[in-house]
Amino acid sequence: MIKRLSTESKKNLLYLYNRIWKEHYFPTFWQQATIIPLLKPGKDPTNPSNYRPIALACCLCKLLEKMINCRLVYYLETNHFIHPSQSGFRRGRSTVDNLLALETGIRLAFLERKHFVAVFFDIEKAYDKT
User: Fold this and answer.
1) Could you say which of 73, 89, 98, 119 has the lowest number of CB atoms within 10 Å?
2) Is the pTM of this model over 0.85?
3) Reverse transcriptase domain: which residues (predicted)?
4) CA dist., res. 59 & res. 90, Å (int)
């Protein structure tokens, strides 16, 4: 719906966002969300731990957060605050980048007849809140 706003409405929204930014005031009702439990595929619906929460948040809040995030990421990347080996949550990067770096390290160690040590962690349900 926001994409289909008139030019005048978009200007008003930008004015609102700029006031929020300048006055350091974030509307409290924007910080509220409705939590909907969704059943994980193929799981028993009688077990509460088989549900994952989905938060339905204010779309105006989400848009402002996205704008701020884009600016912050741009600043961090152009000023080299993010390490080059960090691939998670970065545009144009993926785990394939890290796998390629790992493979390159293994091949170089093999060619130079050196040892190569790699440590892997697989933390099951590391971020599972349900």
Assistant:
1) 119
2) no
3) 44-129
4) 23
